[in-house]
Amino acid sequence: MKVILLEDVKKQGKKGQVIEVSDGYGRNYLIKNGLAKEATKGALNQLRAKEKANQKQAEEELEQAKQLKKEIEADDTVVKVKAKSGEDGRLFGTITSKQIAENLEDQFKIKVDRRKIDLANNLAALGNYQVPVKLHPEVEAKIYVHVIEE
Question: How far apart are the C-alpha atoms of 23 and 122, rounded to whole Å?
Fold first, then answer.
């Protein structure tokens, strides 16, 4: 009997896979517990359509990430962050990814989730920095940040 898995099943397969199982196991366990449904022609067509839609959405997300990368890495996109500092250029406190995201949105109307900003250590001194941003698993951009004295 062929079934389409509706959830991941240990030692059988992942969600969305079409697998061959014995009739008893398929009817009495998988289908009865809502873990799978019988692989009829209509169900297989529905599965293919869903996979196609998911693939199209993934392509659109990748395209949006590439467009956002172009905007972020433009020469005139330099995020200026004001902070109080001491005489030697060290800041009182640090500049966090949240502050960088807020200033990017305020200055350039580009919205980036602060969790995507890959800041190894918070910025603790005046100066220019390149901060990596993970926009998509395949797309990484660099934000140019200029920390100036308040």
Answer: 59
